[in-house]
Amino acid sequence: MVRFISIRVLTYVILVFLATSFAYLLAASLMHPEEVLYPPIATKPVPEGTAQAYLNARNINPDVPVFQRYANWLGGLVRGDLGVTTGTNKELSPVLEVLKQRIPISLRLVVLGTVIGTVLGVAVGMLTAVRRHSLGDRGATLLSFVIVSLPTPVVILVVQQINQAIQNRTGFGLPAINPVNPLLHGWDAFLYESKAIVMPTIVLAIFAAASYSRYMKVTTLDVLGSDYLRTARAKGLTRGRAMNRHGLRMALIPMGQYFAFAVGSAFTGSLFVELMFNWQGVGRYAVSAVGIADINGTAGVVLYTGILTLLSATFADFLQGILDPRIR
Amino acid sequence: MTNPSDMRGTDDAAALQVETDHRANSVLEGMPPSEAEPPEGDARSLESIGRGELLRRRFLRNPGALIGMVVVLLLILGAIFAPMAYQYEPFERDLRNALTGPSQYHWFGVDENGYDIFARTMVGLRISLVIGAGTALLTTVLALIVGTVAGYVSYKGRWGAFVDGALVNLINLFLVIPSLLLLMLFSPVLQQASWLWLIPLLAIFSWMLTARVLRAMTQQLVRTEYVEASRFMGVNPVTTIVRHIIPNIASWIIIDTTLGVSAAILGETGLSFIGFGIQYPNVSLGTVLQAYNIAAPWTWIPPAMVLAALVISVNLMGEALRDALDPTSGSSRV
């Protein structure tokens, strides 16, 4: 099992490295942050030496070959330095510092949403498979079908609008935007933050739950027809115990594979959530970085999502190793 | 069921369950069905019918398919003719009526920029439909090429295994790459040329899961006798794939293309919503949603309803097609 997991981790590390390099080279060749030096309203050009110094300090000099810049960036990466923010943002703050500030904000959203969504989806999927053709099954299947067919912004809007309607009717509601309130301190601040996280988590969780429950229903139905479950029933286990001890485990094995790439989609979901709930997380940073032609920032975000995918894929493999005795 | 993209319906799995369910087993409980007189409407009492007719009947028997088809047709007709007949253009400002609700003149109301929402929704629907259909087709072609080639060569010695491994790792690489970020990088650059560039762009980042499934299916088919026979006869591998392998996975391809339409529409609207998709002189459903205002629900509910109706009905059709084409599903009666 150690061998199995270490080979998988090595493959993932190589893939993440390739993906990040690919993203850096693309960003470096497609984006033109040097254009900020030549605004159309400028009356006279920036002196040559100043321009070169400005571009070199940010490793975005278009006169330096793209692979040379990539090598510079890679050298920094080895030393734990992701470069400085570029683009129209001239403040030269290290990307690592920016990410350090923003990752906790995004990560609690992604982790909470994924975990709640997964647990909910597995439970709903299993229940709908066991009680097939019941009213609950029909309702849950229809609901998950509709949610999977909706784009994330629409679901966010529905949740926000419902919150607004409740607030208009009763006077009490969750904070519509912003994860923190700078005016509050101590216990009140904590209370506000835990209230603010509810709606974004609901959005991410129902998306994860909708797709997981669909997969889980299929795998559980596969398992329900198996011989070993009938044997377990024959030796005297109750329906519930047989399902929990033998069925759930086998049904979860193929689910591990979905989980590997679920965090990536959770990142996409959290990007919309951060934009629409005004959270200053990594997703929002990604949108602004691409918007202002920030090469180092974009590469940093890609690295972050790559590592996130790597961790979740490794976790999925680990889970699979525990669940599936054939791998051990 | 070890593949994340195995998109089988719950009905197939249910069929397996019924086969092994002791209550449904005719030997343990209940009488075996009589073989002597097939009831009316049974397959054996009818003249043999063609495959097309069979599929048509199975498809139309599904109420979801009918609803989906009618809604999609209505939306297509609306997208074609509504902008021609309607009074306002998508970028025509009526600032006097900004943020007013639906009225006789502005059917879906006006957003805060004074744009008419109905005009924008219908024009946006045009672009979303074209992008959805185009991307789904292109995605299928890409997935078909990579999937069948990887599956076909995987048994051909060391080099075959190498090529297969390389293609599988390519698929994994594309799965690891955060596709939304790269789309955001490429899209504004290519949009300067034409909005149609969004079609290949979306296709490049959405073929992977289909390719994985097609590879697995091809691997099973390569072992069959008729493919072996054609190989021993010296038939060109491309001809073998086109003549013997693709027809066998065609039903899956059709289903996946249908479901790919809705996935592409969702991708495009998401991208346009954050401002990196369809750009200014054109409108998409995502750009219309961008002008949402929680205090004025009509700014987002009508376009969201149109979008939801489109995606849900395409998905309904896809699921009905799966039921019709899949011989093991529950609806495989005549």
Task: Give short descriptive properties of this protein.
heterodimer, A: 328 residues, mainly alpha, MetI-like fold, 2 domains, B: 334 residues, 12 helices, disordered N terminus
Total domains of chain A, how many?
Answer: 2
Termini separation of chain A: 5 Å
What is the count of β-strands of chain A? 0
CATH architecture of the largest domain in chain A: Orthogonal Bundle
Question: What do you see in this structure?
Answer:
The complex is a heterodimer of chains A (328) and B (334). By secondary structure, chain A is mainly α. Chain A is 75% helix and 0% strand. Chain A has helices spanning 2-30, 48-57, 66-78, 95-130, 135-148, 152-170, 186-196, 198-224, 227-234, 239-277, 282-291, 295-323. Chain B has 334 residues and is an all-alpha fold. Chain B is globular and about 75 Å long.
Brief rundown of the structure:
By secondary structure, chain A is an all-alpha fold.
Question: How does the SSE layout of this entry go?
Answer:
The complex is a heterodimer of chains A (328) and B (334).
Chain A: H1 2-30, H2 48-57, H3 66-78, H4 95-130, H5 135-148, H6 152-170, H7 186-196, H8 198-224, H9 227-234, H10 239-277, H11 282-291, H12 295-323
Helix pairs in contact in A: 1-3, 1-12, 4-5, 4-8, 4-10, 5-8, 6-8, 8-10, 9-10, 10-11, 10-12, 11-12
Chain B: H1 10-20, H2 51-61, H3 63-85, H4 117-153, H5 157-176, H6 179-191, H7 198-204, H8 208-222, H9 225-232, H10 237-273, H11 285-290, H12 301-325
Helix pairs in contact in B: 2-12, 3-4, 3-12, 4-5, 4-7, 4-8, 4-10, 4-12, 5-8, 8-10, 9-10, 10-12
